[in-house]
Amino acid sequence: MEKQAFERPIIQKLNAGLPSKYGLARKLEPISHIDGVAISSIIKQYGSPVFIFSENTIRRTYKDAYRAFSSRYPKVQFAWSYKTNYLNAICQIFHQEGAWAEVVSGFEYDKAIANGIPSELIIFNGPDKSLEDLRKAIINGSLIHIDHFDELYDIIKLSKEMSEKPRVAIRVNMDVGIYPKWDRFGFNYENGEAWDALNRIMASKKLELVGLHTHIGTYIMSTEAYKIAASKLAKLAVDLEKKYGLAIQYIDIGGGFASKNTLRGSYYPGTDTAPSFDDFAEAITSALLSSDIKPQNLPLLILETGRALIDEAGYLAGTVLANKRLSDGRRATIIDAGVNVLFTAFWYEHDIRPVEPISEQSEDTTIYGPLCMNIDVVRYNVMFPLLKKGDHYVIRRVGAYNNTQWLQFINMRPNIVLIDKSGNLHLIRKKETLDTINSMEVIPEHLKENYYHNMATK
Ligand SMILES: *Cc1c(COP(=O)(O)O)cnc(C)c1O
After folding, report:
1. What percent of the chain has pLDDT over 70?
2. Is residue 21 part of a domain?
3. Which pTM does this prediction carry?
4. Which residues contact 193 (CB under 8 A, 6 or more apart)?
């Protein structure tokens, strides 16, 4: 017998389906229906790709969040973060559930007004408020959350010219143990800037200081960070009470709760790592209740939760365009939705599933969108079954930020439908057409002459 040739051992990188404590990723089960409606029939009716929202899931998630806080604290109010998803139908569901509006631009402010929300129930955040925006918000009695000193001075100046007394809060940034710190918005707590701003507001006598606000970041997985944030705002409230005898009307803890999406490169799936609303509520309410704020002065607790209230309710369904092999032999599947409509693919490992029953075999696959751009990767590595051209896929948990950050690029942005509580479908945003785009363009007179037309007639 011939001696076997020695072969050098090699270490091969396992790119997909990394084992966690539960072992290797299991087979991806198809998702064929959403709230009892067949995804393939939605695609047939509304085209591919298509965004789908579940009204049931939105309302259930909202009620779950509200219960978590209101069962632990006497006065709780949610304000819907418009920039997370400002489709009017989605906003209306949150408003029907009792949420106020939280906006960060004049455009969002006008959108909230047009949605019929009373102007005193609009929280106006963000660093970009024009004088015109501020004047409007003051006349309307909206809640203005001041971001910086220039804005504070603008408001003080306006308050001297106007009969209405601006209702203001300050946004406070602080060290909550999460780095890098979010210190570009609002006034800093640790260096005394926040206290300085509060003193200037009180000294002006022209502003009504109604609240204290913070928004510590987004996709935060630490409940401890919220506990620290709530304690620091409570400390400011106590100091205001001591120095001015002012009982602040509300403390607004902002948004930022992690949704159940999985961040790129995480070891555990987001479904295992995201704290529940109960966990967040426990941390925040216990910090407020155990602070030195007098029981009779307990402020309203406002939450501006965005992502965690809407991510779960959104789906993106579509069609496989092709399969190919990359030069290293890996499989590539090309689908008809790219990162221009699924912005969150840049930081999430989105849960993408087949819609129809599939083979048992899975393979390490890269999923590409249809754009002619190298960055158009929907999932870098996923153990994915072979879907053929024309098969359907569905991507879960896409409800947050995609329909506000998406770009019209190469193709039209698709239809968005809502499945109501009885399983009826409603178109809530129409697919763009060539006319949509052309209606915004203007051709200068001298470019209207058609060169090819003239050539033909010569
Ligand atoms: C974006 C934003 C929110 C919502 O944040 P999520 O991470 O989506 O919960 C709330 N408040 C402010 C001020 C924001 O800028």
Report:
1. 95
2. no
3. 0.94
4. 187
